[in-house]
Design goal:
Radius of gyration: 21 Å
Largest sheet: none
Helix content: over 70%
Order of helices and strands: HHHHHHHHHHHHHHHHH
Distance between the termini: 18 Å
Number of helices: 17
Strand content: under 5%
Length: 423
């Protein structure tokens, strides 16, 4: 199985919580968990912090463009940064991107509080995304390399749970710092968190494992030469578009049906369900080969989205009660997608593969937000919510095929090819 050591033949059957016990027993667990938390909080803080910082003096239209520009810059360059990590020494890539990122943050904060042109602001916002150190992506490949084949699924489930937690706490922290301290305070916190994560990560990374360079298109496309991985990326983009659609539609529904106070509660309840579902999946015996596969998890999400769509025709209170159930499979599906991506990643290209997933996350989220917002405006939120399970159901069928091929391709024992820079 590419990217992880093979599972011992005749190993004893796994019990619940064994995956967590094995992770806790790993010498690198504490450092990995610390880096993971420090790397995920900024992702939940930058968007809202940028919106409040730029919107204060330049209007929220300009602020929205700045947030979009930052996301676009990060999405377009993430695979390149991942390839640099896989091909070059990770330390210079991390430290160089950190220096450029801190300089960009300083310039952006200075310009936003002054009277610079909108064009300068937007260029710096794009640069903010371009220079973001690839710590979060490297964490996924580090988890994949550090965890054995029987705990990789647990590690990815824990990673997804930390992401969900950061998406709840990050905006809350950014909002409090911006409104109670200073609009600049969220960026000071982001700079400190990213610097700390980089400092912890460079202490454990080593030289990259560089495979022989293929000729022609294979060298340019990298991991995208794998057909199963391309299908997995399509599944990821459509899944993220559907999740983002729900995130957009629920606040619209709350506004349309006199429950505006529920808008934030809806999204919080979804996130709580997602975190709990991720932790529960990680506790199942045998984090990779046992438990539900990707197709089943996406099927559960489709069923939850269908229940949410039906609840919208009953009452806003029923929707709030259904939200945690609808969110149960979200984080678990994200974890399964990353586990399978690590299995399908070519030797020496795990970080680049995970970077492609991050880019498709951002692209799918942007497309889902635009599409479902347009449909909500044209058809109403309740009718549009019915489209979400209709989109996810065929995606679940495709995800089941990709997951089955991943397990089949990893059935034959292979030598360990874990990236050497993983702890």
């Amino acid at each position: 199985m590419p990217g992880t050591p093979t599972e011992p033949v005749g190993a004893p059957p796994r019990r619940r919580l064994d995956g967590y016990r094995d992770l806790l027993a790993s010498p690198s667990f504490g450092r990995l968990a610390s880096v993971g938390l420090a790397s995920k909080l900024p992702a939940g803080m930058v968007g809202l912090g940028l919106l409040l910082l730029v919107g204060r003096d330049h209007g929220y239209g300009t602020a929205g463009l700045a947030v979009s520009g930052s996301a676009l810059g990060q999405a377009l360059t993430a695979p390149l940064r991942g390839r640099l990590v896989d091909r070059c020494a990770p330390r210079p890539v991390l430290l160089g991107s950190l220096a450029a990122h801190l300089a960009t943050v300083t310039a952006l904060v200075t310009v936003a509080r002054g009277h610079a042109s909108v064009a300068v602001l937007l260029v710096l916002a794009v640069a903010l995304g371009v220079t973001t150190p690839p710590v979060a992506v490297m964490m996924r490949s580090a988890w994949h390399g550090a965890a054995g084949p029987r705990t990789a699924g647990t590690a990815m489930a824990l990673d997804s749970a930390m992401t969900g937690t950061a998406l709840i706490t990050g905006p809350l922290l950014a909002s409090w710092l911006s409104l109670s301290v200073s609009p600049v305070a969220p960026f000071v916190a982001v700079a400190l968190l990213i610097s700390g994560a980089v400092a912890l990560l460079v202490g454990v990374v080593g030289p990259p494992c560089v495979p022989p360079r293929p000729a022609g298109a294979g060298r340019l496309l990298g991991p995208l030469t794998c057909a199963s991985l391309r299908r997995l990326l399509a599944v990821d983009a459509l899944f993220v578009a559907s999740v983002t659609g729900i995130d957009v539609l629920l606040p619209v529904y709350a506004q349309e049906y006199g429950a505006a106070a529920y808008a934030g509660l809806y999204l919080g309840a979804l996130s709580i369900g997602s975190v709990l579902g991720s932790l529960a999946l990680g506790a199942l015996p045998s984090g990779r080969s046992g438990g539900p596969g990707l197709g089943a998890l996406l099927g559960v999400f489709a069923a939850g989205a269908g229940a949410l769509a039906v609840a919208c025709w009953v009452s806003p209170t029923v929707v709030l009660l259904v939200c945690p159930v609808a969110g149960l499979a979200i984080g678990s599906a994200f974890g399964a997608l990353r586990t399978i991506a690590g299995d399908l990643a070519p030797r020496g290209r795990v970080t680049e593969t995970m970077s492609w997933l991050s880019s498709l996350d951002l692209a799918g989220g942007a497309a889902g937000a635009a599409l479902f917002a347009y449909l909500a405006d044209a058809e109403g939120s309740r009718t549009t919510l019915l489209f979400v399970p209709a989109v996810v159901t065929p995606v679940a069928l495709l995800g089941g095929r990709v997951g089955a091929r991943s397990k089949h391709s990893s059935a034959t024992p292979r030598p360990s090819t874990a990236p050497p820079h993983a702890p």
